[in-house]
Amino acid sequence: MNNLYIYKFSVLTEQLFKHRFLFLIATTILTIFLGYRASFINADTRLERLLPASHEFIENSKKFRDDKVGGSFIRIAVANQGRNILEYDYLLKLQKLNDEVSLLKGVDTAGLKSLWAPNMLWFGITPEGFDSGPVLDNNILVDSPESMVKIRNNILNAGIVGSYVANDFKSSMISFEVLTYSPTTGERLDTHEFTDHLDHIREKYQALGLDIYVIGELQKISDLVDGFEQVAIYFFIAAFITMVLLYQYSRCLKATLVPIMCSIIAVICQLGVLNLLGFDLGVYSILVPFLIFAIAVSHGVQVINAFSHEVAKGRSNIDSAKVSFHLLHKAGLVALVSDGIGFAMLFIIDIGAIKDLAIVACMGVVVVIFANLVLLPIIMSYVGVTQQCVEHAQYKLEQKNTFLAWLGRFAEPKRAQVVLLITLAASLIGFEYSLQIKIGDLQQGAPELRSDSRYNQDNLYITSNFSTSTDILNVFVETPIGQCETFKVIELIDRLGWELQNVEGVQKVSSPATRAKISRYLGNEGNLKMMALPRDERVLSRAVSNIGLAVVSDRGNCSKHIITVELSDHKQTTLSAVVGVVRRFANTHNDNDIWIRLGDGSAAYEAATNEVIDHAQYEMLIYVYIAVAAMCLLMFGSWRATMCIVLPLVLTSILCQALMVAMGIGVKVATLPVIALGVGIGVDYGIYIFSRLQSYLKLGHSMKMSYLETLKTTGKAVSFTGITLAIGVATWIFSPIKFQADMGVLLTFMFIWNMIGALTILPALAVILYGPQEKTNK
């Protein structure tokens, strides 16, 4: 041991290892307790967590609806297995299905619409005048051809072909709103229980010979949660791959199992702490524990690598553990704190699901600090490593590795200049391409799920066979009390509806003005000249409030209207065009008599979310990089060191956005955090490499020699970690959850490029900024 460098350990190191047994006992008890608490963690399916709470659309909705929390619309298409719906048996089954759905807890029964709903009326002009009645009831339904003919005529006179009856008459629609909170008690609906009941009804009637198709935000979230049950499989696959590669790297079972065990402990404790704090896992933060596992493995490999090399030098297990902790705890702590601060920057995005993700990620980082920087070296001080591991570590230290020698040349001035020129060119090209990145969903249906998923197949059936839209945007109109049916108000609503109807992507506009026109037309023997707004406000009031048509105005004090806009899709171009028209019209015409505001509906929520994300995506990245740079500056005390670590991460972020453009992935709630997470994980590589590089520079080595020595230890661990984690995350590509597959592609790319940047661009920057013969850190 006389030839070994003697470290002066800090008080923290000495006290930690002096009381290591007590620490192990306390950690074991705490892990068991938190593991028990983790068993109670559930998926958070609250729809409001997916919305930007303080956005003007959400605020407008709360104000307009008197702070009543709205629900989610569900549409159920009931098909007669390729046959016409005008069959006695089908209509009886439809009636029973309609009744069962209406009795489900949470269904707004008054607003439920189907062929059997009492508010589904037909209208006609007869020799006796205007006539109306229910499309279908027990008095009409008789098992006879005459009855079927009458029902068909009622459907045609109701004008519901394409909306509540398929264009080919082979299926019909049931639509209703699910109130996620009770309007009387305020009790929150168990949405997962609701969709379970709905699935049970679906299976029951499919067994009776009907084909059932269900869509709606609530159903989509439920299908996502059901898909997460398979996510655990990919966790175990990634853990197994990591374990195999780690064993190949260390040639020691103990050095393989201990870091994997500590990483799993980190995940268990993370979930347990979340449960203690009253949090559940949101649908978009469900993957964060897997990322925490990856971060934990990354730091665990550094500890195992340092420990093995110290044992190979002849130190005892306890001394090797002390040295490993001494060498790595500062760099590891700074790296993990940088991760945590970077993740915390997600809090600036005012969307509950992303804030939940930030909490989960930050909590995971805190746990990793204890599990992999403290617990891991303590356990290794007891278990040690095998002789085979020691011999393998010695062999890796002594062998001449041509690949490492080739990497070492990146610390030469000429090669460094070439690398930086290539980096600059890649950054410029990637930046220009990344400017094409889109906000929001770029595909039909639910992009979070596979195109062949049950939900997207249901959505495809409904959009192919019905003309009704699944993307709704409501515009709120408010007036002084008693003034909602003046000619000025209804005429302005009519003009806005006309402008909206001529926007590309708008399928239909329903408003008090359209209702008044139809009412006038029907009440005047079908005279097309009468399909206009009368200036006599008494006549206009009767036309607007015709009880035979859907009433959307506030009849209590006559101060509110809703304009419902049905869109062909929820792509950003469509949403921004509609929102732009409404805002321009409102800015021009809002006065003391009328206030027009954008409101709720699935498309409105999507538009609000897109606006928040569009505003926050670059702001978030700026804050993430400021936080990471500040931590690097604090640790190394040098702007040059900070540049060496941060600039390679910037290139990865730019190229990641370019990749999203190439893959047709938009920036949305599910994908926005990936870039921040990638930066947080990637900074670890740079901090570890520069920390070790700095230690060799302080010993008097040249830049190239320092980097070569760094590559033999930390560099190998970084390359191994980057490749291993990339392979593990790459398995996500095969997940049934599309957004997990997208995250798998993006994170695999970021793991690889962060590793490449740390091994090539960082030394190139160092040699340019410091000089090839730099021997101290200035």
From TrEMBL:
Pfam families: MMPL
Listed InterPro entries: MMPL_dom, Mycobact_MmpL, SSD
UniProt keyword annotations, A-Z: Cell membrane, Membrane, Transmembrane, Transmembrane helix
Compartments, as annotated in UniProt: Cell membrane
Domain SSD residues, every copy: 257-382
Protein name per its UniProtKB record: MMPL family transporter
Topology within the bilayer: Multi-pass membrane protein
Gene Ontology terms: cellular component: plasma membrane
Organism of origin: Neptunomonas concharum
TM spans (from-to): 21-40, 231-249, 256-277, 283-307, 327-351, 357-379, 418-435, 620-639, 646-666, 672-693, 714-734, 746-770
